[in-house]
């Protein structure tokens, strides 16, 4: 009885301290992520908007359109398993160039040791403008083949890869569509768009919504002024001249540079999310059009090499030689 009274006495004195712990560590309300609404941010900053009573930070110089008509052409490339919740495994962007082909950057699927990521470690997600929300229109696809350019150099030329999917995208989904590729060189001065779910600023958080930024394509001579020893003829550079407040960040790699409703280039690398006052570097689609055609048609060769097809083709060759 004496022990029980002592325990009650200790609890009585500790109770005020225990009640203060949730407030001290921000554990009030529903869980750990219910941030205080007393924080006020200036809405005149270029990368902050106030929407529906909440603040949304945007990629430097970017914006969230009221109606984003470009997200239907892109996918979020993710690791095969989410860490804690849907969408937290995003790391690159890709363009839907056929009903079972994704075009992205080679550095998204080739590590620094030149090891190509195995297909079963990847998944692509289409039809999810907010990468954390799985909608009825959202489509998740497994990858069958990872096909980077054979002459890819990190922070160099040929930063392009194709992902062949296990299945085909449905043709009746208005939120998942194929985008065309350019068949001509883009002219300097052309106004284009990039989009992605990348970091909102250098070493910052990734965006939940697909963010769009308007960029202008520069001449190759102008690009070489910034990247004298790194700029290659198979590259394009673009940005907002003088301001340099729009740039691709980590997580935007592999995404398309869209000009006049066509993909003209792929996000390759930039200058610390616009902080260093340099344009973003892209891989030119026009200069890799032959590689894209050959690589995307390699499925026929793959099938011919399967055992069941190999012997059939041997028999076909034998009969052709006999005639």
UniProtKB/TrEMBL annotation:
Mitochondrion is among the record's keywords: no
UniProt-listed CDD domains: Tryp_SPc
Any one annotated GO CC term: extracellular space
Record keywords, A-Z: Disulfide bond, Hydrolase, Protease, Serine protease, Signal
GO terms, molecular function: serine-type endopeptidase activity
Domain annotation Peptidase S1: ranges: 59-297
Signal peptide: 1-26
Entry's transmembrane regions: none
Source organism superkingdom: Eukaryota
Coiled-coil boundaries: none
One Gene Ontology term from the biological process aspect of the record: zymogen activation
Record protein name field: Trypsin-3
Organism: Bactrocera dorsalis
């Amino acid at each position: 009885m004496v022990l029980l009274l002592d325990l009650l006495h200790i609890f009585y004195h500790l109770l005020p301290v225990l009640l203060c712990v949730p407030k001290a560590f921000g554990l009030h309300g529903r869980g750990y992520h219910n941030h205080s609404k007393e924080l006020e941010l200036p809405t005149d900053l270029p990368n902050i908007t106030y929407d529906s009573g909440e603040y949304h930070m945007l990629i430097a110089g970017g914006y969230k359109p009221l109606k984003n008509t470009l997200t239907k052409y892109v996918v979020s490339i993710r690791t095969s398993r989410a860490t804690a919740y849907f969408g937290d495994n995003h790391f690159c962007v890709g363009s839907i160039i056929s009903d079972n082909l994704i075009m992205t950057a080679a550095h998204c699927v080739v590590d620094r040791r030149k090891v190509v990521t195995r297909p079963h470690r990847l998944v692509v997600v289409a039809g999810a403008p907010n990468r954390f929300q799985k909608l009825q229109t959202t489509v998740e696809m497994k990858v069958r083949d990872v096909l980077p350019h054979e002459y890819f150099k990190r922070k160099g030329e040929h930063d392009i890869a194709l992902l062949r999917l296990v299945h085909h995208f449905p043709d009746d989904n208005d939120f998942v569509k194929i985008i065309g590729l350019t068949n001509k060189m883009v002219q300097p001065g052309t106004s284009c768009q990039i989009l992605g779910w990348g970091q909102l600023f250098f070493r910052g958080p990734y965006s939940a919504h697909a963010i769009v930024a308007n960029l202008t394509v520069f001449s190759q001579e102008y690009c070489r002024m910034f990247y004298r020893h790194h700029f290659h003829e198979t590259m394009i550079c673009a940005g907002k001249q003088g301001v340099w407040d729009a740039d691709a960040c980590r997580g935007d790699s592999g995404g398309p540079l869209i000009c006049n409703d066509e993909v003209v280039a792929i996000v390759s690398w930039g200058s610390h999310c616009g902080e260093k006052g340099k344009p973003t570097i892209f891989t030119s689609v026009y200069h890799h059009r032959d590689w894209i055609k050959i690589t995307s048609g390699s499925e026929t060769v793959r099938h011919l090499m399967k055992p069941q097809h190999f012997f059939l083709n041997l028999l076909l060759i034998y009969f052709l030689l006999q005639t």
